[in-house]
Amino acid sequence: MDADEAVLKQGPTIWNQYARRRRAEGRRADLRDASLSGADLSGTDLAQADLRGAQLSASYLMSADLRGADLDGADLSEAYLIRADLVNSRLVGASLDGADLSGADLTGAHLDPSFTRSQVISDYLTIWPE
Fold first, then answer.
1. Left if phi > 0, otherwise alpha if psi is -120 to 50, otherwise beta: which for 7?
2. Could you list the pLDDT tens digit for every one of the 130 residues in the chain?
């Protein structure tokens, strides 16, 4: 398990302090291929994080800050991304089947070309990229 993944598993409060300190030092969180399926990451600051290939299926990412995060190839199937901030995130090759994006902001997000809105749960508050 990577050091960043170990800190994240200690919970959002500890992680958010750690992540903000790392960003202030000019370093981004490295959570590539992290195993976080079913984890409660609600309110977690994952802005600019490298989450390529991460296993996040059925995880709770309500109100999580994923601005600018790289989620290429991540498994977000059945994940709860309600009110998540995904502005300018990368989701190419990510699995979003059954993910709940109700109220999520995907402004400027890069979605996989094969993505269709019918794959996910969304509502009138979901903001889609143009």
1. alpha
2. 588 999 999 999 999 999 999 989 999 999 999 999 999 999 999 999 999 999 999 999 999 999 999 999 999 999 999 999 999 999 999 999 999 999 999 999 999 999 999 999 999 999 999 8
